[in-house]
Amino acid sequence: MIWLKRIGLFLIGTAIIGAGFFWYLLQYADVDFYPPLFTEHCGDCHGDDMLGTDRAIALIENRLEGGDSVAAMIHSINHKHVADGRPQFEDELTQEQIKGLAMYVGERRLGQKFEDFRAYSPIVIPDEPIHSTIHDFSIEVFANSLDPLTYSIEPLPDGSFLLTERLRGLSLISSTGVQSEPIDGTPKTGKSGIAVRGIPAGLGWLLDVAVHPDYEQNGWIYLHYTDLCTDNCEHGSRLFPASMNRLERGRIKDGRWVDVETLWQAEPQFYTRMIDTTAGGRIAFDDAGHVYFSVGWKEPLALSSQDLNSPNGKIHRINDDGSIPANNPFLIHPAVGNDESTLTRQSIWTYGHRTPQGLEWNPRRGKVWNTEMGPRGGDEINELLPGRNYGWPYHSLGLEYTGHSVARYKLQDIEFDTSKVEQTLVDFTPSPALSSFAFYQGDKFPGWRGNLLLGTLKGSSLYRLVFDGKEMIEREVLFRDLARIRDVEIGYDGLVYLLLENAEESMIVRLVPTD
Description:
Elements: H1 2-28, H2 34-41, H3 43-46, H4 70-79, H5 89-92, H6 95-109, E1 130-131, E2 136-146, E3 150-155, E4 161-165, E5 169-173, E6 195-196, E7 199-200, E8 206-211, H7 215-218, E9 221-229, E10 242-253, E11 256-265, E12 280-285, E13 290-295, E14 314-319, H8 340-346, E15 348-351, E16 355-362, E17 367-373, E18 379-384, H9 409-412, E19 426-428, E20 434-439, E21 452-456, E22 462-468, E23 471-479, E24 484-490, E25 496-501, E26 506-513
Antiparallel strand pairs: 1-2, 2-26, 3-4, 4-5, 6-7, 8-9, 9-10, 10-11, 12-13, 13-14, 14-15, 16-17, 17-18, 18-19, 20-21, 21-22, 22-23, 24-25, 25-26
Helix pairs in contact: 2-6, 4-6
């Protein structure tokens, strides 16, 4: 009977995993619903290639009189054709379809393709300097031959860098660009697992690394990773491990990871087999002794992003020693209760997040900011205000990969007031897949001081954004089509360092002023 029970448990576990991967593949499958829709309704006039015909203008490589934002193109599709005796599309198509067509055209105008995440596109470093509005600069290779699954770099005062590779662990890059062997004793990592559109997906990944603001005095290094669980959590087993975010700190001495302290760890029931591409995993420090860290929607339907009893889809804040700040927005005093849901709530700073890819302290605003990937469209830059709801999965300016509006609350038959959602500072639709960012504070590019430098994955571009308070007043693309930019950091030398992710060979490059 024991072997029958084991077989039964094995089949149940396999079914659960299969259902999860099926759902994931359904969301991210290499299927674009809009080219056929465009061909059917727009191709005769604008051309299937969008280059125009004698009946209508080109939609790419051309200025659009009505504007090229998604909102402007939605208005044009709805209303601009009537005067020419052509169909009034708002009577023929749903608003979801019209928005999807506008996003599809917008993607093509940016040179993006829905199915291309640039994981295998070769990295070609420009030979000539790049000219931008304020500074000219060249791109230099600092370190190459890195593992394909890189995640984070962190500059050190001596000119070296810490590097996390999701499957290999933590290593050092010397000031001359030479990589060390992995630091002995850092957290155990898992395997890459399946790949979707060329992007590996797995469990048990090393994610962000950050040094304490007083690192030169105390030597503390903070690691954010997904802890693997095989037999002490609800969903983990020896055959099918589960994972969940964990934050710890330690020091490097004689090439070893020592003095390790676990600062935050989720309760066992929150470990899941949902792949770690949804884990978030960034770290940021403010100027008052707090550390913030992001946990993505680490469960299939992402509904727990709205659940304050779950750590998923949240930005958390703790003191730098792991204790809970007394003014956290959802703090419940231990006298009221110290059950697991109470403990989960205590560290939550904001909620309603999807995939927080960047997290940084904005010294001019005195607030922590984040970047976040939406589904198809709806990438965001947010200022994170305590206790606020940022909407996911009930509200987004993007569309689901299936082409439908993001409105999963309808499945639950519950009311949701979108007016209470903290709206994004900057919406990126179409989505370039926002990644990491940094506020430039160095001396090598004085005209950029205080600007936000933003990397993208699918877009393979680097943006420079200028803000007046919370309002973006300038946006410049410094370059396009380089590679997936996984991390952006400012070195102690004032140069801008980029971690480029590539399936063949990842590398670190730096921007060096030439003007």
